[in-house]
Amino acid sequence: MKSPVNIKQQVDVCLGRAGTHIGDLTYVKQGKRENTAFAYAPAWLANPDAFSVSPDLALISGHQIRKAPSASDSCFHFAIADTAPDAWGRRVILREHAKRRKVDASLRELTELDFLLAVDDFSRIGALRLQDRAGTYLRTVEQGQRTTPAMLELQHMFEASRAVETGTESADDLRYLVGKGTSLGGMRPKCTVIDDNGLLAIGKFPSVDDTRSVTRGEVLALRLARLAGIDAAPARIVEINGVAVAIIERFDRTPDSARIPYLSAASMLQASRQHEHSYTEIADAIRANSPQPTADARQLWRRIVFNLLITNVDDHLQNLGFLHVSNAQWRLAPAFDLNPFPDKDRESKTWLSADVGPVMELAPLMTHCAYFSLTPALALAALADVVKSVSDWRTVARHATVGLQSHELDDFAPAFEHEQMDTARKLLR
Question: Which pTM does this prediction carry?
Answer without folding.
Answer: 0.94
